[in-house]
Amino acid sequence: MRRALAILILVAGLIAAVLTGADAPVIGALALTGLGILLALWPRPAPPVAVAPPEPEPAPPAPRFDVIEAFGDPVIVVGEGRIEQANAAARKLLGQHIVGEDVRVAIRHPAAADRLISRQEPLDLRPTELVGLGGRDNRWQMNVASLVGGRLLVHLVDRSEGHAAERMRVDFVANASHELRTPLAAILGYVETLDDEKAGGDVPTRKRFLRIIHDEARRMQRLVEDLMSLSRIEAEKFRAPSAAVDLGELVTEVHAVIRDGGNDRSRDVVTDIDESLPFVAGDRAQLSQLLHNLVGNAMKYGRAGTPVTIRTSRGPGSMVRLSVEDEGEGVAPEHLPRLTERFYRVDPSRSRAQGGTGLGLAIVKHIVERHRGRLEIQSIPGKGTTVTALLPPAPIPLSRNGNAAVTQATRTAS
Question: Within this chain, do residues 193 and 214 fall inside the same structural domain, yes or no?
Fold first, then answer.
């Protein structure tokens, strides 16, 4: 509106100047003035508005796989060579700091690094064996699967126990075969010799050979009996015994059997029994076998004329301590951890010469484990060895005297 009015005034002014006969300079000045007014009133274009560039959209968060926490085995998620997630089992195995680390640093094993860094397509789904991860004798099986975004799911399965069991089985079969083959070879050899008319006709030679055959046959019999006993104990290891056993009475009974057995060392066996002890929860036959094995070992390896002491006493907490002590050559410290292994012998030739099968302490260990107890072996070279079994008390902890008192009170009441 203002622009139209200004134009109208300018035109009117110019017409009036021309009609009144104004000079040309006046008309020009008037035109310039009007043009200036028009320019002042003419709308200027609006300055360009600066438009901020659009902000980049934030990268979507990495997907979470919280389901891995439900696994008891170690499970990790690997993305671009780094560990994005790890469940509690994986953090316990590899360290609490592994999230965000390079997978080659977290799992320090060349086979794992080759498998997880390689871009092989399609993904090799075969398991990878990792030997020595987390410990020299540990064996783990690594399974790998693909996830979204090129990520990998790594599942570690501990195969250490299974491998150790398989190795023990192989060693056991090999050792048992060797232990049976040795006396069997001797028996066959002497039988073949006796079959010779010249050797068989000599009475002293025949008697000596027959005595050796008898000893080797008895050795085989003891070995088979020990193997069967060990098998029975292992078959029952998940079923804890619940019967109440008077340990003092059992020690007295075993002592009497050993004393009457005719062994030259039987007179060296003495007992030290705490009469106030509670009954133990146990299998009487197996505890008797445990005592016979321990006392038999002490009689073999203790010095002649020195005491073999069977002692019962109170152990830590509510446990009952049963120990057998000898005064012999003792055992070097490096042998102690292996004494309960099947067929392990500190001195193999001496053990075989004294009729040992190499299974005595293995049977003792399995009996104690079935009784939910603990086995301890202490030995000082040159002084002797003490083998201790800590056994839990029976649910009703009655001592022998206490049991007698209860029985007497019942009789009086009746």
Answer: yes
